[in-house]
Amino acid sequence: MKTSHSYPFFGPDGYDGLDALLQELAPSKTFLLVDSNTTHCLSVFVPKLGQLDAAFEVLEVPPGEESKSLEVAANLWSVLLEYGADRNSLIINVGGGVVCDLGAFIAATFKRGIPFVNVPTSLLAMVDASVGGKNGINFAGLKNQLGTFTQPNYVLIDPDFLTSLPQQEWESGHAEMLKHALLSGTNWAEALQLEPATLALYEIQQSVAFKAAIVREDFKETGKRKVLNLGHTTGHAWESYAAVSGNPCTHGAAVIQGLHVALLLSGLQDEQYALAKRYPWIKVEDDALTPLWERQLQDKKNTHGEVRYVLLEELGKPIWDVQITREQWTQAVSALNSAS
Ligand SMILES: NC(=O)c1ccc[n+]([C@@H]2O[C@H](COP(=O)([O-])OP(=O)(O)OC[C@H]3O[C@@H](n4cnc5c(N)ncnc54)[C@H](O)[C@@H]3O)[C@@H](O)[C@H]2O)c1
To answer: Which of 14, 246, 279, 320 is 20 to 30 Å apart from 5, CA to CA?
Structure first.
């Protein structure tokens, strides 16, 4: 595979760089993967690329987590075959984290890997999902059970796409920015104050740069990269439990729940209190405790059947592989319930 990048490119320079990559790759066929909420982004994206083959195909999937499924993946592989895609074909993922995760997985597995580009259109995908080379789909009711580590050939971030993003999806991306701020320890107070209308490009750059730097140190998540899972142990459990309970929430809303738990288990009450002022803890009912704990037992970071957490010794000082017992977790949840 030709050029691949672990760091994104932004705005007009980003389009120039992508044009240069298209020239270099000279793909036999180009596929633009979107969901029905991001199709409109193509009217901004396509005209900015002089080197994009006009005979591209648009592949559209339904929006939402349900598209990260084996069924949708199989359908896309079939469509690629029908169009005669080969190892020199290119997939450009124009969408949120679902489109980036799904399209990257399709590209990484089709004919043992074809080139792909991520063009994130949600805030969450800009600061997190489009960068770092993890991709995947959900399986057996559990998040991201099938996937690979494969770097995209290019990531282009154009904040103009955010103008059409619904408020709750903006907040979902904000959750990952808050996670990066807690981990880096550099801009926690400022990150808590961010708002859609005033979000600056450099704030997106700062957040995604933090992730990219960690990924460069530990691409396959054998050690330090695990810190990026701060808030995600309870978060993933909450997200999948909410979905099967018929009350789905955004990925970021689930991560916020997880950050509350992680901050309390870390003994960082002040930070948890500050977080609650912006994003209050959502009370966990008694009958949800067992299913939530059981989902955490399935977490990919676990070893020896023990639940492992990322915690913070202090702001900016994460530790990982911390064993948390059911009793400790239940106590934290009870304390958060009582305070809410
Ligand atoms: N691979 C990774 O490293 C990584 C990291 C974090 C999250 N993720 C994954 O990312 C997914 C969550 O990402 P997400 O929050 O972007 O979800 P998403 O892709 O479902 O996007 C959220 C919603 O916003 C819509 N949308 C996206 N861009 C839009 C735009 N510009 N205008 C209008 N609507 C728009 C989408 O259609 C969708 O309805 C999860 O599946 C999560 O597991 C992956």
So the answer is: 320
- Find out whether 253 and 172 touch, Cβ atoms under 8 Å: yes
Nearest CA to ligand 1 atom 12: 97
pLDDT mean across residues, the chain: 95
Confidence of residue 219 (pLDDT cuts 50, 70, 90): very high
Question: 257 and 235 in contact (C-beta within 8 Å)?
Answer: yes
Query: Which ligand 1 atom is nearest residue 63's CA?
Result: 37
CA of 164 to the centre of ligand 1 (A): 13
State the number of CA atoms in the 13 A half-sphere of 94 facing the CB. 24
Class of domain 9-165: alpha beta
Report percent pLDDT > 90 for the chain. Answer: 91
pLDDT-based confidence at residue 4 (cuts at 50, 70, 90) = low
**pTM for this predicted structure:** 0.95
Distance 108 CA to ligand 1 centre (A): 19
Ligand 1 contact, 129 CB (< 6 A): yes
CATH topology of domain 168-339: Dehydroquinate synthase-like, alpha domain (1.20.1090)
169 touches ligand 1 (CB under 6 Å):
yes
CB atoms inside a 10 Å sphere around CB 24: 13
Domain spans, the chain: 9-165, 168-339
Is the distance from the beta carbon of residue 134 to the nearest atom of ligand 1 less than 6 Å? yes
- The answer to whether 181 and 151 are in contact (CB under 8 A) is no
118 lines ligand 1 (CB under 6 A): no
pLDDT for residue 6 = 63
Report how far ligand 1's centroid is from the alpha carbon of 98 (Å). 5
